[in-house]
Amino acid sequence: MSTESRSTTELNDSEHLAVLGYQDSFDRSMSLWANFALGFTYLSPLVGVYSLFAIAMAAGGPPSVFWIFIVGAGQMLVALVFGEVVSQYPIHGGIYPWTRRLWGRRYAWMAAWVYIWAMIVTITAVAEFGSGFLASLFEVEVTRETTLGLTVLLLVVALALNFTGTKTMARVARIGLASELIGVIAVGLYLLIFQRKQSFGVFFDSMGVEGDGSYLHAFMGAALAGLFLFYGFEACGDVAEEVASPARRIPRAMMMTIVVGGVSALFSFGGYVLAAPNLQEIVNGQDPDPIPAILESALGPVGAKIFLVVAITAFLSCVLSLQAAASRLIFSFARDGMVPGHRWLSRVSGTARVPANALIVAASIPLAICVIIYLGSDELLTQITSFAVLGIYIAFQSVVLASLRQRLKGWRPAGPFSLGAAGFAINVAALAYGIFAMVLLAWPGSTGVFVTDWTVLIGLAVVAGTGLLYLLLARPDAKSTAPAGDAIDVAAKLRAGSARQAAVN
């Protein structure tokens, strides 16, 4: 595996972007570490573990921790495929321009449409989960009204920070990274070493979650614990035009996000399991929010408060990263004339040099969804979270499938990051893993209530159906002149450009 091929090393960022048909419009002030921090705070193991710990334990018991290994390995395959794609196409928007250049405009439009809505719902879900930390910190009673108010506060503060520019976003992402590492690794290690109340053998004890049935079924039911944890690395590519040397740095940042995120989640999840004084009650589903009690038991009231401050910082950084990634995708979509109001959405602010109008959209729609959740049922947040995860996995696999299609047509990725001869096998394995993950996410529930059991697929059908209807009636693909399906041609141009540079030098 190579990260410094001679194919495009000689092309600087502006020359590489020119080959792809664009000019530099953004401030390339984001370093490798800032880019990694953006992806890591989007992935946010603290958010993922806290949000789904109780659900995973009730569904699969302590062995559900093994989903972290399974999903981490599968998503690393996907990240490797993404690495080759972004190395050839280091442009804003990530999944949308990648699928357009690998397949075509219609295919990309549908992939991006699903992905945009999944990201917007994810922004909403993370802000909603974060409101619980704010309520605990200020000792405010958790009601529908306080949840709505605190969620809106998180969304608005993140938007204000995003408006100030890429440097602020990168700085907050680095602060969020530090908060995440303290909140998951430091606290997790402390719980593992000094507050352990269970033996390590508990990770092989189902503690009766299977009842009279098979444990395999229960274990599969706990898959969401891992599946919700390992996305966000793609955000590293969403801001490609704000990263220096993106063709080399973004693939590395993506892989770092997976590895560090997986280790962090493992320490965090494992620490909570081993330090839980009432583990059987958690497994039995009698304690729907067990982590605050675990932390207060282990850290004391003052330590638990300090952790809450760290956690809130991580949640805010996660919402900020999500808004930034979503806005860049919307901007990329609009820059190619693929959505209504594309001229307004594709404007870049003159001072901060951020897509300000796209940022407004990335914050205002989640605000509207928060109101819907406020007016809806108690289960609505969990249901829309499941939809968000499925939508993002579908978008991921649209890139993996398009990449495999191009390989079969003879494409040899021309970016500095290359998988070489292993690329085809890794691509196939990533697709197989993705299909497995999507089946798990889409599998209907067993409550017997149709709407509840099929909510995830109903939501997907509504989003995909409206997107397809707009695509067929409005034909946004026909109005766009953005290049599409040119992976093989672009690879040849990049190699020719680097050859000319080498000849001059």
Automatic annotation (TrEMBL):
Transmembrane segments: 32-59, 65-86, 107-127, 147-163, 175-194, 214-233, 253-275, 306-331, 352-375, 381-404, 416-442, 454-473
One Pfam assignment: AA_permease_2
Organism: Arthrobacter humicola
Key words, A-Z: Membrane, Transmembrane, Transmembrane helix, Transport
Cell compartment(s), UniProt: Membrane
Membrane association type: Multi-pass membrane protein
Annotated PANTHER family: AMINO-ACID PERMEASE BAT1, OS04G0435100 PROTEIN
InterPro entries, per the entry: AA/rel_permease1
The protein's name in its UniProt record: Amino acid permease
